[in-house]
Design goal:
29% strand, four-stranded antiparallel sheet, 5 helices
Length: 330
């Protein structure tokens, strides 16, 4: 085992020089142990193919203390759990697999042989990453090995199945992609309402089965929300004004980054002066703010950098908004 610091609040625990079966099993075992029972001060655990990233709170522990805890945990390995097996139906070629013919030409084999080879292997989920629910599957048969596309596509449809190097994968959502697309599936790879949200987990096994038709791609489950009475209308969005809360800790192992406000202290301050919960969502404004109209009376607060915000009031005109104080809007 080799420990490498990542910034001042994370350690990478490297468990092998190459992506051999032993190193992958050790990484899965350590990752599962840390996800089931976190170390003191641990904030996130991210298992990779042959390593585990551990993000910690520097106010609660140190890299030295965490390293000692990790060595102790490795001396008590978690028994290997049998992964689930998944069969994924795939429509190969045509509009759903725009690179199938090109891949066959470059490899010097018929397209049908590409399909046969891709479906002949049982793939192991090596790790999740790149985007929520994206599983790196391998090893791909050596006869299908190709480098990434010279020019990535700016957008691939959800469910696209692609290959690059000795790996294959399924895009859980529409996104850019630089792998060679052979087909598409209707299986939902990521559902925020599911626990865990990613269908494929490290150690699972996957087989692809050719299908003549694409099964309906069902939307992810979304909890129903009651209609609300709008309070604010956005006239101009400004430069990258977004709705942010304090983020989602504990899901990076599923490919979900923390996200949240870039200035969490300012968000917490604004919520505090309004009596909101610390993590309540707010508008995070960058460089140049939006133009908003208040549709009913409410209180709001500004915190963080000074953007020279003004409140247009019929009795006072353009009234400078103070920071760090609750303000009544009519």
């Amino acid at each position: 085992m080799r420990l490498r610091p990542v910034g001042d609040a994370a350690l990478t625990c490297e468990l092998g020089e190459s992506a051999g079966a032993g190193a992958r099993a050790r990484a899965r075992s350590l990752g599962r142990s840390l996800l089931e029972q976190a170390l003191p001060g641990q904030r996130e655990c991210v298992p990779a193919a042959t390593s585990v990233l551990v993000v910690f709170d520097p106010l609660r522990t140190t890299a030295t203390q965490l390293g000692n805890e990790l060595r102790g945990r490795l001396e008590r390995p978690t028994p290997e759990a049998a992964g689930r097996r998944h069969e994924v139906p795939v429509v190969y070629g045509g509009a759903d697999g725009p690179d199938l013919a090109e891949v066959a030409t470059r490899l010097g084999i018929p397209p049908a042989e590409v399909v046969r080879l891709h479906g002949s292997a049982e793939y192991e989920v090596e790790m999740l990453g790149f985007m929520p629910g994206f599983a790196y599957l391998g090893p791909l048969p050596a006869a299908l090995e190709l480098p990434r596309r010279a020019t990535p596509r700016t957008r691939l449809p959800r469910g696209s199945i692609a290959i690059a190097g000795r790996q294959t994968g399924i895009y859980p959502a529409a996104s850019p992609g630089g792998w060679h697309v052979l087909g598409r599936t209707g299986v939902a790879l990521f559902d925020p309402a599911r626990r865990p949200p990613a269908l494929l987990q490290p150690g699972d096994r996957v087989r692809f089965r050719a299908s003549p038709t694409l099964a309906p791609i069902l939307p992810a489950s979304v909890a129903a929300t009651a209609p609300s009475d709008p309070a604010v209308e956005v006239l101009e969005p400004g430069l990258l004004t977004t709705v942010q809360d304090l983020g989602r800790f504990g899901w990076r192992s599923q490919g979900v980054a923390w996200a949240g406000a870039l200035d969490p202290g300012a968000l917490a301050q604004a919520n505090a002066v309004l009596g909101n919960a610390p993590g309540a969502a707010g508008l995070e404004i960058t460089l140049q703010g939006p133009r908003l109209v208040f549709l009913r009376a409410l209180r709001f607060a500004l915190a963080g950098a000074d953007l020279s915000a003004v409140l247009e009031r019929s009795d006072l005109g353009a009234w400078p908004v103070p920071r760090g104080l609750p303000v009544q809007a009519r």
